C-alpha cells in the first residue's frame, strides 16, 4: 500500500513522534521510551513515517537512528496554509467579540 504524508500525520502518535524528532535524531529505543505503547507498535509507526519519507532510519553500529526529513511535510503544510485566512478571520471576530464583552462590563 502506498502511503502519503496526510495518512502518516493523521495518527496522533506519529505526530508526537515527528514533534519529538524535530528536536534531535533519536534511536528507535529512545523514541519508544517516550510512549506508553509497545515497542512493536512504535516500530510500526516508524515504518509508516519512513515509507512516507518523513523520517529516515540510519544504522550506526548496533543502533538505528531516526532522522526527521522536514521537506516531506511541505505538502501538508501547503494544504493547511491555504486555510490560514479563514482561521485568521475567525480569530479576529472572536477577539472583537471579547472586546465587546469587556466594554459592556
Provide a short characterization of the protein structure.
With 105 residues, the protein is an alpha+beta fold. The protein is 60% helix and 13% strand.
Q: How would you explain this protein's 3D organization?
A:
- With 105 residues, the chain is an alpha+beta fold.
- The chain has helices at residues 5-9, 12-21, 28-33, 39-51, 74-81, 84-104, and strands spanning 26-27, 55-60, 63-68.
- It has a single domain (5-104), classed as Winged helix-like DNA-binding domain superfamily/Winged helix DNA-binding domain (Arc Repressor Mutant, subunit A, Orthogonal Bundle).
- The chain has six helices and three strands.
- The protein has a three-stranded antiparallel beta sheet with strand order 1-3-2.
- Strand 2 and strand 3 form a beta hairpin.
Distinctive features:
3-stranded antiparallel beta sheet; alpha+beta; single chain; 6 helices; 105 residues; Arc Repressor Mutant, subunit A
